[in-house]
Design a protein that fits this description.
The complex is a heterodimer.
Chain A lengths: L6 H24 L7 H34 L2 H5 L5 H35 L16 H29 L3 H23 L10 H4 L20 H25 L4
Helix pairs in contact in A: 1-2, 1-4, 2-4, 2-5, 2-6, 4-5, 5-6, 5-8
Chain B lengths: L6 E10 L2 E11 L4 E5 L6 H8 L7 E6 L2 E2 L4 H5 L2 E4 L11 H10 L6 H10 L15 H13 L5 E5 L7 H18 L2 E6 L2 H7 L2 E6 L2 E7 L3 H6 L4 E7 L2 H7 L5 E5 L2 E6 L1 H13 L4 E7 L3 H9 L6
Parallel strand pairs in B: 3-8, 3-9, 6-7, 7-8
Antiparallel strand pairs in B: 1-2, 1-4, 4-5, 9-10, 11-13, 11-14, 12-13
The chains are: A mainly alpha, B alpha/beta.
Chain lengths: 252, 308
Amino acid sequence: MKIYRRVGTWVMFALVVLGSVGMSLLLYWVLPGERPSNWSVMQIESLFLMNLVMIFTVVKSADAVAGEFTQGTIKLLLIRPWRRSAILLSKYLSVLLFGLIMTVTVFVVTFATTVPFFGYTASPTDLMEVSDSNPWAYMGLWYLYRFITLVVIATFGFMMSAAFRSSGLSIGLSMFILFAGNLISDILAWMDKPFVKYVLFPHLNLTSYLGGGQGPLPHHPMTIGFSLGVLAAYFILFNVISWTVFMRRDVS
Amino acid sequence: MSQYPVVHLQDVTKKIGGKTIIDRLTLDVYPGEVFGFLGPNGSGKTTTIRMMVGLMSITSGDIQIAGHSIRKAFPQAIRHVGAIVENPELYKFLTGYQNLVHFARMTPGVTRQRIDEVVRLVGMENRIHEKVKRYSLGMRQRLGVAQAVLHRPKLLVLDEPTNGLDPAGIRELRDYLRKLAREEGTAVFVSSHLLSEMELMCDRVAIIQKGRLVDIRSIRRETEAANVTVLDDMVFEVDRPEEALRAIDGRASARVEDGVLIVTADRQTVASLNRRLVEAGFNVYGIRVRTKSLEDQFLEVTRGESVG
């Protein structure tokens, strides 16, 4: 309830919706001749907006616990008749729910704003990489992969949130990791060492498997299953850390 | 006073980094009493309160609330507790009412009617739908009390409740707490370093110093005092106190301290002593009761020990 009573949250939703409308208009205007299909426009917009959603979700997750500490309200939460684990779990679920709602919003909005401008194509020929498969299935999978990435990153932000008491610090650090991650995976992509397969960051780019790709690291062909496994391991690690830190902590 | 304590602290000890913050603290608080927890800054008041409400772990010993251990059965124990730890920190971006709804949802059995009732109780009907960021400290304190009593706790824990309140607000809070203790049988646990405040508010006061319990004493209430014959230290301001002492010698335990005549006597004796002194030609400038205030007692008990 608290997430949605804040003005900031609604500004985020508004940005997503407006961004989509704006981009559709822009692309319609700059591409007067051959119009791309609504699906490929939708993918471009989604790519952009999902990055935005990722930033928003990291902010929310990093703020979820640390914000309570900063405001001092954590004391009032913890003296309710619930175990600490229940409070942490509900915080975590609310963050995931926020991410899910945002993702669904992006999907719906990008679809709704591209169709009026570019028409609806049942079997697009210009959708990246795969022209033979069903566009709904392709976009669905694309969104699923992005959402898995989102969950892992939100978990990371949440861990930061539980570990640091100041929301400023945890938001800042999570954002830094989020952006540095892209850079790091670019660097890793050129390295020949075996350990790079186990570093978190390249695996956040799950969509590179779409259309029969070999994964994010050109020198290390991997399967989607392997990537998911690595992500799951990190996911568990992050959660274990947040849990133990939060359960042990003396609140002052 | 009921036989079963609401709160029972047994040898509670807290160590942080090898330093003992709280040392084997044992005390009981009973239903319907306002219990003061007094100590200089840094003596461990807030630490004790944090352990009582489960915000801090207890190094050794145990705290039981309504018979449930705060360590082993946290949800059952904390259910009976309402608290404000330090400042009433609430969600500033929500209205007062939304804050109450939020906390009510986290506690089973709190209805909308109860929320409205509590709002009336703390006298906030007019401003409850405003955002908390627009409240004054006094308003926030009231809202803090409101969230603490929502679920009708058996134990109300307040850490420095009068901080930042104006005299009228302090008085209101005091009256409210006494009413709560009297009418609902709530045990109220108040910490403070404001001695005079505790004197007015509490039935019993525990004094702690450097994490150790120094003393627990009952505070005599004025209502009780009026019915009993009490011997007070009466201060007579007279000229020539030494001669006056000789003039009344044998009548009462009298002595001269700091140039005034001090007599321990009841009211009747005081009147007759006064007559004698006047008739013997002494000038009596004033007679007053010298009560030993809690402050004196407090300083007496903690004298000579530095803080921290």
